[in-house]
Amino acid sequence: MPLVSTTSIVADARAAGVGAAAFNVIHLETAEALVTAADRTGVPLILQISENCVRYHGGLLPITRATLALAEAARTGVSVHLDHITDGDLVRQGVAAGVGSVMVDASTLPYEQNVAATAELTSWCHDRGVFVEAELGEVGGKDGVHAPGARTEPGEAQRFVRATGVDALAVAVGSSHAMRERTAVLDKELIRRLRDALPVPLVLHGSSGVADDELREAIAAGMTKINISTHLVSVFTREVRGALDGDPSLIDSRKYVAPAREAVAEEAARLLGVIGK
């Protein structure tokens, strides 16, 4: 089916009181696995390409064009989103390539500079019909706004959204990036306060560290876009490691990458059932 927009996926999920799943692409095999999961479940999915992913592939166009092609060939609605982009030139390249949504990440800047940089890119994106997500600045610790102890203050979040015009806001409610265990306990009361204070959908980063029941409760409390990367990366890596340990004679990478791709498809499909239904 034709490429769908992140705007429609997020808006439909919010209206239905379910989550909008946003899973990160690492390489082509990941993107293939994630599209397979969407097609198997019939649940729409946002494919995310981060600045780190762009850097790994040596540039934005190869992985972005491949991911767009897979999304366009999907039988279920799939959109392509740029995640944690700090470089305005990458935003412009991505939009030119056909990406319909971006996360502008100026969170390491002081508040006023974050507002100015985010507002400028948001205005540019809106002139081209592109959905923009952003986040507030660092609150403490090297993990910044997504450190386990960090919390987004509703009044400041409201002022930030009003000043920048963004379409969605990533908020700190108890999750943390790159968690390897699903042990985070989210502040559901804060999620409800943020939902009531803000006119835009809330985004949960660091969802790899959040168990199924916590995700369901967070969505019920008002969280909409749910970002997952590390958990699915670990599934892929575990399957590759198991295949190589089980047969040291393997040299054809397809023999161990294909099972890893299928394992990611299965787990992504399971998570879509948790988040999007």
Give a quick set of tags describing it.
single chain; 277 residues; 11 helices
Walkthrough of the structure:
Helix 10 runs antiparallel to helix 11. The chain is of the alpha/beta class. It contains 11 helices and 8 strands. It is globular.
Q: What portion of residues belong to β-strands?
A: 5-15%
- Gyration radius from CA atoms, angstroms: 18 Å
| 3D shape | globular
For the termini, the CA-CA separation is 21 Å
In terms of per-residue confidence, which ranges show pLDDT below 50 for 5 or more consecutive residues?
Answer: 138-142
Largest sheet: 8 strands, parallel, barrel
Topology pattern, helix = H, strand = E: HEHEHHEHEHEHEHEHEHH
Helix content: 40-55%
Number of strands: 8
Oligomerization category of the chains in this entry: single chain
Determine the structural class based on helices, strands and strand pairing: alpha/beta
Counting H and I runs of at least 4 residues, what is the number of helices?
A: 11
Q: Strand arrangement, largest sheet?
A: 1-2-3-4-5-6-7-8
The chain-level mean pLDDT equals 91
Question: Would you spell out the secondary-structure blueprint of this structure?
Answer:
Elements: H1 6-16, E1 20-24, H2 28-41, E2 45-50, H3 51-56, H4 60-73, E3 78-85, H5 88-97, E4 101-104, H6 111-126, E5 131-135, H7 154-164, E6 168-170, H8 188-197, E7 202-204, H9 212-221, E8 223-228, H10 230-246, H11 253-275
Parallel strand pairs: 1-2, 1-8, 2-3, 3-4, 4-5, 5-6, 6-7, 7-8
Helix pairs in contact: 2-4, 2-11, 4-5, 7-8, 10-11
